[in-house]
Amino acid sequence: MVRAAIIGMASACVVVPVAVLLSPLTPVGLAKIAEPDPGFAVNAMPLVLGAVLAAVLTMLVSAVPAWTAARTAAAVRGERPGPGRARSSVYTSALSRAWRSPAAATGVRMALQPGRGRTAVPVRSAIFGATLGVAALTASLVFAACLGHLLDTPRLSGFTWDAFASVEGGLPRAAAALRADPKIAGYTRGGFTGVRIGPVKVMALVLGRSGPARPVIAAGVPPTASDEVALGAATMRDVHTAIGRTVDLVLDQAEGHPKPARMRVVGTVIVPPNPFQATRLGEGAALAPPGYVRTDPGAAAQLGGLPFLVRFAPGVSRDAGLAAVAKDITGLPNPFAAAADRPANVVSLASIAGLPVALSGLLALIAAGTLAHMLASSTRRRRRDLAILKALGFIRRQVRHAVAWQATTIAAIALLIGLPAGIAGGRWAWRVFAGQLGVLPEPAVPLTTILIAIPAALALANLIAAAPARAAARTQSATILRTE
Q1: Percentage of residues in the chain with pLDDT exceeding 70?
Q2: How many helices (H) and strands (E) would you count in the chain?
Q3: Cα 437 from Cα 340, distance rounded (Å)
Q4: Would strands 308-312 and 184-197 be described as parallel, antiparallel, or unpaired?
Q5: How far is Cα 156 from Cα 438, in angstroms, rounded to an integer?
């Protein structure tokens, strides 16, 4: 543990200057735009806290290996020859017998048998470290894929239309122009209105029953009846309600003092920002037209004047579609057209979309380093075993193949356990993040990337094993057996 304490203190001394040197790269996202003077920054409290955590965590992580080393030293002092000392497990024996090649069988045994005494190798720690690295790498890739899917899919932010268009007169003419435009796939009559649920004021999305635009429901069902409403997740928390319960809702802009309408919460909805950005993700409500009328009878006359939520035809770009909508309503009273812009907090994520990929690369290096350290330790500590193999007839090529099979076995176990664990962990992390962000938590698993990563990881394991394999093949059996 003394050596672990020294390493921990050294790592703490390295963490502080590295953090200061990297400070010009921060902050990121929207905060980077708001930072007037990016440069070197020294904040004493976080730096001291990080240094202390680095030292303490290094010592905590070293506790189990130190205890194992103490047990190994005791075993070496009390070691006695016996027929059962080198006995391997039934699983290891069965697995090694699955290959007819002596080099393959030997490599599998070297990967799974830690050994005892002076030849003990941290096999379990190496497998655990490699598995943890693969799981963390996979989770980072899954998170990055989910983030990219969010940035490329407006529906996850609540948008099922591409543009918002409104006029104050000539609605039949506007509707006919939009229907005849080949760049327009269709439209839904709908819009936003302010409502109050108790003391909470939110924007409610009202959508007609025909057309392509539909409310994005994360849980439950969309409202269809006059006594049904869907609420955003944050709004549900603010008004202390849940699906199946009832709330009192009233139009915020209604004239006079309308009586609150008792409505049943039937779903959790993702309400996108309105064209004036007055809605934040996670907040808001969704009503069917009958529910809108029920909250204020005077609103019935306004249904015919609801704006157009327009969907562009397939292949039409955002600029071309918006120009077509603007042309269709030109000449009508007070025309207004706006694209369905993504929320600001979603747009800001585009600037940090590469961070999960960079993190996955760092985790891959850590996993590769763990495997390389284990193979180097194994080759050094098992010199006598390698010398015996060469004395029994192993040639240099077979020794190299044995070490390669050792690395391949560890990598295969890490992939077999780490990939499913990483996929599950990445999906869970994204669901938690999406829930906090207020978007539809729809995970995306990069299966193609993961399938490509499997042979790449096995090839990398063999590449890492090349140097230890050459060192093992150069073992001088006569010298080793004579000196030991």
Answers
A1: 81
A2: 17, 10
A3: 18
A4: antiparallel
A5: 9
Query: Above pLDDT 90, what percent of the chain?
Result: 15
- Provide Rg for the chain, Cα atoms: 32
Alpha-carbon gap, residue 285 to 264, rounded angstroms: 12
Residue-wise pLDDT for 44-75, tens only, equals 787 788 778 777 777 776 666 566 556 655 55
Is it the case that residue 207 has pLDDT exceeding 70?
yes
Helix, coil or strand: residue 205: strand
- Ramachandran class of 202: left when φ > 0, alpha when ψ lies in -120 to 50, beta otherwise: beta
pLDDT tens for 411-443 read 999 999 999 999 999 999 999 988 888 888 888
Mean pLDDT of 278-298: 81
Considering all CA atoms of the chain, what is the largest pairwise distance in Å, rounded to the nearest integer?
103
Q: What is the pLDDT of residues 300-343, one digit of tens each?
A: 666 667 888 999 999 888 889 999 999 988 888 888 888 887 77
Q: Provide CB contacts within 8 A for 198, sequence distance 6+.
A: 239, 247, 248
Contact between 285 and 204 (Cβ < 8 Å): yes
pTM: 0.75
- Which among 287, 273, 275 has a CA at the least distance from the CA of 325? 275
Compute the distance between CA of residue 262 and CA of residue 197 in angstroms, rounded to an integer. 10
Residues 6 or more apart in contact with residue 202 via CB below 8 angstroms: 194, 195, 196, 232, 235, 271, 279, 283, 284, 285
Residue 213 burial (CB count, 10 A): 23
The H-assigned helical ranges of 332-439 are: 344-347, 355-381, 383-391, 396-437
Q: What count of other Cβ atoms lies within 10 Å of the Cβ of residue 425?
A: 18
- What angle in degrees, to the nearest 10, is found between the helix axes of 355-381 and 466-473? 10
Please compute, for residue 154, the number of CA atoms within 13 A of its CA located in the half-sphere on the CB side: 17
Q: How far apart are CA 146 and CA 148, in angstroms?
A: 5
Using the predicted structure, report yes or no on whether residue 277 has a pLDDT greater than 60.
no
Token pair recorded at residue 56: 């303490």
Alpha carbons 474 and 174: distance in angstroms, whole number: 84
The structure tokens listed for 111 are: 């990967």
